[in-house]
Design brief:
Strand content: 15-25%
Number of domains: 3
CATH class of the largest domain: Mainly Alpha
Bound molecules: adenosine-5'-triphosphate
């Protein structure tokens, strides 16, 4: 690596020569050639487990080890075919586990691709957005606050760029960058004329040239050291892991007791061992872990199709418990389609068409709107901030015969911008709520500022009228505030505009002493889906809170329209929030539905206050400064379209349509995934309970063992997995959003769950034992055949009971086709075992008479009939 060039010690001209590129960027043709040569700009993931390692890893499970012991014991007891079957089943299980692991990894990777960043690049002199993978060395990139740096780059032009390089250096401070030439030996952290892949732009802007991509970048070199593909388990998976461990220990203890009981009864050693083994196999829910993984993967895929991209699997579970959603207004609850409505200047309110370029105040207001503005409208499509391109659209409508600033009788922003070149700028940020740009107007350096009315008005010393410039008095302020109030009460977003002549260097400290020009109000209608979604959230016991940088009156007007704010609710401004203590906030928080004029830092306090109340909070965000709040929230939600890469990086979920309604859909999906997992677990564990009870009963009653290990493995791994998966695929229903959110501290094994597990298990065990006795009247082999058949079939029927709480008649037999498929496939497998001679001998089953078959069918159906009747009685009572 050391022969590599130390670009930081090169002057700009040499760098450009090195990459044979001009300020117009590469040509598409050349870029394609380099892409073919250098490959895509992607990082190869760090050490990944090989497929063999994943396969062998499947055997490192305590439960699997118990099964291996069972196979060995079976062999010693002379039951070699049983040993073979157990081993075959274990290998099959490991193969399935490996396939699932690889599939789950692929699905996570495809999710990662969905949320991979774009870069703004100049090619053939045209600015365009490209996926980061297509960036090549020599590309000229434009970096702006909120972007992720996608390659290593050298700074060509710098406008106060600050980056966070914590992914590379671990230091989470913002580093100011600069355009300069450094010494060859400058250490990585001090190379202020370079930016590195993986860094986040927190402030300012810069034009840079790419010097390295993919594995040649600094982060690429350490990628092997970092385990990028680190697997993280979700809380549910972790608690199930813990549960499995406890279960395994319990199984070992009970098996030992059963074994000892057998010996005490003077049973043959091997027979006593067989009882213990049967019990162990009966109790182990082999399919549990994989079912949870599959259901979660299926859920995230479904969410991605519905525009919610899950970045952190933990979010799927948290979503089900969300009881507060703190949402941004602009673009999430509203359409972010701004249209200028009215203007106020020179003491009058007027429409955009009435703007008169001959009036000096109007003219400067127009300059301000176009020049303190970074957006463009190309072929009727806005590029940049919707607030800003609404201003450009407004200007394009204004008629004028002033050839200096218009084309074909209308104002042309390009002509204006070319004639009045920009000298300096301070970009907009939601803390300051201002943007300033210095331009040369007829040779005079003039700063144009636009921003929130209440902020800018206090920075104005004068007010401009067409006939004079007056001092900004308290009365003048009152007139402007009153006009702002009138606009805001109609839900309009209002911006104030001001200017001053200044030759000094522009800085935040010098954003004052302005002359007020006017106000421009714009509409941003609520999204229609928001109104319905807020209503749905309310029914689901979820409070929606609006958090906005906008003016309080505007925010309340919109919140009322959407249904977030109703009479008796409180609307707080950021300033009011600063004044109250944490205790006062905790007291009021349930009543506060609108936070206006807040800065991103306030969001952290709001989330924290809700979390202290034990509530699970989702928080949306798009800006750089939203990142800490997104990390703090239980579910951080970033905007996919308007959101910065910084926000997406911090979030657990990204909305690819920026729509509030998508969050509610994701909550429903989150609740559904959890419910389905819980029901699948109930299904598996109640089935296992039935088998355990049968083995325990026969052991206590000194009867022959009812099941061979192969029988139980057949049920646990094959016939039971099918309905369990079908339960996992149960579609979401509107009823899911009619209940209160789940208590996050409540585990799966609640009292109610355990009661159901035991009662349903006992019911299945009872009919299985009836079948056993019927068979036992003939011989022990028939007893085992009857018991095995009834247990298998009863558990297949039981799959329909566990789909949902409600009776099958209420939810519809056909509403989950997978469950019917699972039943048919499971029954088919059972018939194969019972009637295909090779299988019958491996499973040691006896030939059944028609009468016995009818009895099996009847007995196996009884538990389901009873459970459905109980459900229906419950529903009737309700
Ligand atoms: P939300 O937080 O719901 O997205 P918002 O878009 O109004 O609402 P910010 O983007 O933080 O929040 O804007 C805060 C205020 O800053 C706005 O109400 C407006 O007065 C002002 N503002 C917004 N965009 C600009 C801009 N591009 N230039 C100058 N001022 C702006």
């Amino acid at each position: 690596m050391q022969n590599e060039k130390k670009y930081w010690s090169y002057p700009e001209a040499e760098i450009l020569k090195c990459f044979k590129v001009t300020e117009d960027g590469l040509t598409e043709e050349k870029a394609e050639k380099i892409l073919n040569e250098k490959g895509e700009n992607v990082l190869r993931e760090g050490k990944k487990k090989s497929v063999l390692q994943v396969f062998l890893g499947q055997f490192c499970d305590l439960l699997v080890i118990i099964l291996i012991a069972a196979a060995v014991i079976s062999m010693f007891s002379g039951n070699v075919s049983s040993t073979v079957v157990i081993l075959v089943v274990l290998v099959m299980n490991a193969v399935l586990g490996t396939i699932q692991h690889v599939k789950a990894e692929k699905s996570l990777e495809s999710l990662k691709k969905l949320s991979s960043p774009n870069a703004k690049v100049i090619r053939d002199g045209v600015k365009k957005e490209l996926p980061s993978q297509q960036i090549v060395p020599g590309d000229i990139i434009i970096l702006e606050a909120g972007d992720m740096v996608v390659a290593d780059c050298y700074i060509l032009n710098n406008y106060s760029l600050q980056v966070n390089e914590s992914s590379l250096t671990g230091e989470s401070v913002n580093i100011e960058k600069s355009k300069c030439v450094l010494d060859e030996n400058t250490a990585l952290a001090d190379r202020i004329n370079m930016v590195y892949s993986g860094s986040l732009v927190t402030y300012g802007r810069a034009e840079v040239v790419v010097t390295a991509t993919g594995m040649d970048t600094e982060i690429g070199r350490i990628a092997d050291l970092m385990n990028l593909s680190k697997e993280r388990k979700t809380p549910l998976q972790e608690s199930l892991d813990k549960f499995s461990k406890k279960l395994a220990i319990l199984i070992i203890i009970i098996s030992i007791i059963v074994f000892a009981l057998g010996l005490y009864r003077h049973m043959q050693l091997l027979d006593a061992l067989m009882f213990a083994v049967a019990l162990a196999v009966a109790a182990i829910p082999e399919a549990l872990g994989s079912i949870v993984t599959i259901v979660q993967a299926f859920g995230t895929q479904k969410m991605a199709k519905e525009n919610a991209i899950i970045k952190n699997l933990k979010a799927v579970e948290s979503l089900g418990c969300v009881s507060v959603i703190c949402s941004d207004k602009t673009g999430t609850l509203t359409q972010n389609k701004m249209t200028v409505q009215n203007l106020y200047a020179d003491g009058k309110v007027f429409s955009p068409e009435e703007l008169d370029t001959k009036n000096c105040v109007h003219r400067y207001l127009l300059y301000d709107a176009v020049l303190a503005n970074d957006s463009e409208v190309v072929n009727g499509k806005g590029i940049g901030d919707p607030t800003e391109y609404a201003l450009i659209e407004m200007c394009q409508k204004i008629k004028s015969d002033d050839g200096k600033i218009c084309r074909d009788g209308r104002i042309d922003e390009d002509i204006l911008r070319e004639k009045m070149l920009r000298i300096e700028e301070i970009p907009f940020d939601s803390d300051r709520k201002l943007m300033s740009a210095k331009h040369s107007i007829d040779g005079i350096d003039t700063v144009f500022t636009k921003g929130a009315v209440d902020v800018l008005i206090d920075k104005c010393e004068y007010v401009s009228y067409s006939d004079e410039i007056r001092k900004m008095t308290a009365d003048e302020k009152e007139i402007i505030r009153e006009q702002n109030r009138i606009f805001s009460e109609n839900g309009l977003r209002v911006l104030a505009f001001a200017y001053k002549e200044m030759t000094d260097k522009l800085s935040i400290e010098k954003e004052n002493g302005f002359t007020f020009l006017g106000l421009i109000s714009m509409v941003d209608p609520p999204r229609e889906e928001s109104i319905k979604a807020v209503q749905k959230a309310k029914e689901a016991g979820i409070k929606t809170v609006m958090i906005t940088g906008d003016h309080k009156t505007t925010a309340v007007a919109i919140a009322e329209k959407i249904g977030i704010y109703s009479k008796g609710d409180i609307a707080l401004t950021g300033a009011q929030l600063d004044e109250i203590s944490d205790e006062q906030l905790a007291e009021k928080i349930e009543k506060i539905s609108v936070y206006a004029r807040v800065s991103p830092e306030h969001k952290i306090r709001i989330v924290d206050a809700w979390q202290k109340k034990g509530r699970i909070a989702a928080m949306t965000g798009d800006g750089v400064n939203d990142a800490p709040a997104l990390k703090k929230a239980d579910v951080g939600v970033a905007m996919g379209i308007t959101g910065t890469e910084v926000a997406k990086d911090a979030a657990a979920m990204v909305l690819s349509d920026d729509n509030f309604a998508t969050i509610i859909k994701a909550v429903a999906n989150g609740r559904n995934v959890y419910r389905n997992i819980k029901n699948a677990i109930l299904f598996l564990l109640s089935g296992n309970t039935a088998a355990i009870l049968c083995v325990l009963y026969t052991s206590i009653m000194a009867l022959p063992v009812p099941f061979a290990p192969v029988h139980l493995l057949f049920i646990n791994l094959l016939t039971d997995s099918l309905p369990a998966l079908a339960i996992g695929m149960e579609p979401a229903d509107p009823g899911l959003l009619k209940n209160k959110p789940r208590d996050p501290s409540e585990g799966i094994l609640t009292k109610d769950f355990l009661a159901k597990m035991f009662s349903q298990g006992a019911l299945i065990a009872a009919v299985t034992m009836c079948a056993y006795y019927i068979g036992y009247s003939q011989n022990a082999a028939m007893a085992s055949t009857m018991a095995f058949s009834v247990l298998t079939l009863a558990r297949l029927f039981h799959g329909f009971n566990c789909r949902r709480k409600e009776s099958i008649f209420k939810i519809g037999f056909l509403s989950n086709k997978y469950s019917i498929g699972a039943f048919i496939a499971g029954t088919f497998l059972l018939l194969v075992v019972l009637f295909v001679p090779v299988m019958s001998s491996v499973f040691s089953v006896s030939t059944l008479t028609t009468g016995n078959m009818v009895k099996i069918l009847g007995l196996a159906f009884i538990p389901t009939a009873v459970i459905q009747i109980v459900k229906m009685i419950g529903e009737g009572r309700k």
